[in-house]
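Me: I keep going back and forth on a fold encoding question. No explanation is needed for now; the record alone will do.

Assistant:
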Amino acid sequence: MDGSPSTIAKFLVPKIPFIFKTVLFHSLWLSSTSTKWDLRTELTIKIIREMLNGQPWSISKQQKGTLKDPGVKGRMWISRVTMPAPPEDDLRQALFKAIDDMKEGDETYTRPTLEPVEAEWTGYRANVAKDAPEPSISEEEKYQNLMKEVTSDVTILYFHGGAYYLMDPASHRQATSRYAHLTGGRACSVRYRLAPQNPFPAALLDALVSYLSLLYPPPGALHEPVKPSHIVFAGDSAGAHLCASLLQLLLQLHRSSPDRTPTVTFHGRDVELPLPAGLALNSPWLDITRALPSIENNAQYDYLPPPSKSADVKFPPCPLWPTDPPRTELYCDGSAMCHPLVSPLAAKSWAGSPPIFVVCGEEMLADEGKVFAQRAARQGVKVVWEQYEAMPHCFALMLEGLQGGRMCVASYCKFIRDVVREPESVKTEGYFVTAKKLERKPVDVEKLTELTDEEVARLMDEVKKRKILGLEGEGKAQPRL
């Protein structure tokens, strides 16, 4: 569903009785979530849930509806750039070798070509009105003006959410400009290739190109080389998934070259592949199979449709989906669903990782975040964990202005600042933030869940096998994250 006023009105008018009932039940404390949510939160989440649980649009129509550029106005600088594909094939071959080395069975995947990667430099624009138009100057001049307002070394490499088939950086400009403002830095938001037309590992290859382009600016780049210790991978939902996959890829390349930092040829130079300063993940989607218990158990607090409600829903056929030949997943070949670079939850080792921040609600993806954070912390990685009671997926983005959302963003940006400017100050710590009162209760990050690694692997493998056997049927709805 697109966000145009006419489309929203067409949806909301028939829902007036539903809206009235929601208000009434909340006011009379008859709703199961009245004690956890305020009225605005209840209305917002339940209306979004109604939208997502309606008759699905085709993948083509959904993509078209979410790829509309809303324009640039207000307190943000946006400088659009293109990161050229390197003429050498080293980067691509390094990715394929890592994928093959990490296989545990007969996983198959499509080998994408190297392509230019579009991105947006985002920064805060001070001393202008909230609706100030974008100035009519060159992209280079916009970048120069952006850099005049940067006050720290922080560079956020940002990957947007949208289940790998929706949205682009334009949809997240308000969020990334806010992150830039609160950290004093800048963000580089990547327009990676979308599935299903570009399945795994196309997006991961684009992410790798974008990271190396920050480190080693190709000819014509607007920016100077960025130190890896100044770069934080950040993202929400599927974008957080891409952050974790990119980090796991880099860790695998380091494991394959234990005696020295791995290198590749990039735009005519032999360059190293270092690790970034850290990861900042918001409601990460880490398991393509959606196999863990919270997917169903936490549905009451989320707006996303759980498998029990979406399993029999089919996307209307379109040029993008179902694919020819058919495949069971939008993002990847069915056989690869449990590959560690497809579902980072399947990665056994995060040892050697830089610090990681994970925040989520009491949402359907909560178990994935818990298992990931717990596993990394037990392996010696510094992990900062925050979970907000009764909050849905990406609540800080969906419920702007909510006090809990502001608190979440403040923690998110504090971690990004600290891991770049004072990395020694970052330590493993965890908190559960209560609903309404927003009390921060300490939790042990190494004891977030009773799910064992063996049980997680078994649950994921069972879903993979069911999908490959076709029990859910060709072309049925996939998670809309």
In short: Residues 71-309+321-468 form a domain with the Rossmann fold fold (CATH 3.40.50.1820). The radius of gyration is 22 Å. Confidence is low (pLDDT under 50) at residues 471-481.
